Amino acid sequence: MNYSLLQSLGWSNLYLQQLSLTELESLDESSGLFRITAIHRNRILAIGECGEVSLICTEQFQPVSAFLAIGDWVLADAANEYYRIVKILEPKNRLQRRVAGKAKVIAANLDYLWIVTSANEDFNRNRLQRFLALAHEFSIEPVIILSKMDLAAELEGYLQQLQGLNVAGVHAISLHDATSLIQLQSYDLAGNSIALVGSSGVGKSSLINHLLGVGQAVAEIRADDGKGKHTTTHREMFFSKNGLAIIDTPGIRELQLVDSQQGIEQTFSLILSLSEKCKFSNCQHQQDLGCAVIAALQSGELQQSELTNYQKLIREDAFQQRQLLGAHAQREHDRKFVKMIENHQKEKW
Ligand SMILES: Nc1nc2c(ncn2[C@@H]2O[C@H](COP(=O)(O)OP(=O)(O)OP(=O)(O)O)[C@@H](O)[C@H]2O)c(=O)[nH]1
Ligand SMILES: [Mg+2]
Ligand SMILES: [Zn+2]
């Protein structure tokens, strides 16, 4: 096995540790290690030591979407012109969002989430914070890419709104300004994995095209929507000349989080540290009696819009948690409630 080659695709000891002795031995003969690059209805593509291969997924890992995501590492056995997946290695992270009430994986084993927003009407700080909570929840470093800065009449206003966000980096770029793109080179390293997310049309695929270098066929992954626009219809992983793994994703209209309290708290770290200074540990930040959050609102340290957005996301998360409790838990809850009423009545009599 050529591990240094695998490392350039994102492989690390974290995955190696999960292989048994027998599995390690099989690597030199009939099987290989692969990273998933695309999942289509009837074929799964992956990349390994010998280049790109097609994988087959047995019953054991069906439905595929429940087991496998782009970016996952698998052990697979040679089977004619295909490889058959025998083991899916536990990922270091698996980025998920909620779609129609169900958790849906965006990608696995990421180092950075590039949250792309354009410097025009798409820009929305509250929405960005939602994406930040997503990254923080899954321990992926969030980076904000402010795209199309050539279209912004006044860039300063956007940059100001990006201040104070808990992110690993903020980069204002334009594809028409080569020098603005130089700052992204520090990410462009073999072994790094990045997924790009954001609204449709903000320039994710165009930026990927730039990183891949001229002549790469990103157009292949897009469908013409008839309006002369090319919109990405499915997720796929590409590799830059330097070996950076980049995942393109279709535009997200509305991001719904999955079980994200911790991610939300990390996103709004100022509010969290302020709450720790409130006089009462269960302070709801509604009365100024010893409330550090209200004091910060009054002093201007904290913006009301920031607190409102935080409370909205926390409420939404709590609501979804209750829904997740499901019918069984609800019944359990009802049963206990009835019992409590009965006991109460007994006591009364
Ligand atoms: N002016 C300007 N236009 C840009 C820039 N980057 C991308 N565009 C244009 O924006 C449009 C949308 O770009 P895409 O890269 O397809 O956007 P996307 O985010 O991949 O969109 P979806 O695939 O639908 O999610 C294209 O017409 C690009 O040429 C930029 O820096 N400046
Ligand atoms: Mg696209
Ligand atoms: Zn308080």
How would you characterize the overall build of this protein?
The protein has helices at residues 3-7, 13-16, 21-26, 64-67, 125-137, 155-161, 178-181, 204-212, 261-267, 269-275, 292-299, 304-324, 326-348; strands at residues 31-39, 44-48, 51-56, 73-79, 82-88, 94-99, 102-108, 112-118, 141-147, 169-172, 193-197, 222-224, 230-232, 236-239, 245-248. The protein has 349 residues and is of the alpha/beta class. The protein folds into three domains: 3-88, OB fold (Dihydrolipoamide Acetyltransferase, E2P) (Beta Barrel); 94-248, Rossmann fold (3-Layer(aba) Sandwich); 261-337, Orthogonal Bundle (Ribonucleotide Reductase Protein R1, domain 1), CATH 1.10.40. It has a six-stranded mixed β-sheet. A hairpin with a 5-residue loop joins strand 12 (222-224) and strand 13. The protein is globular. The chain binds guanosine-5'-triphosphate, magnesium ion (MG) and zinc ion. Residues 147-148, 150-151, 174-176, 200-206, 230-232, 250-251 line the site of guanosine-5'-triphosphate.
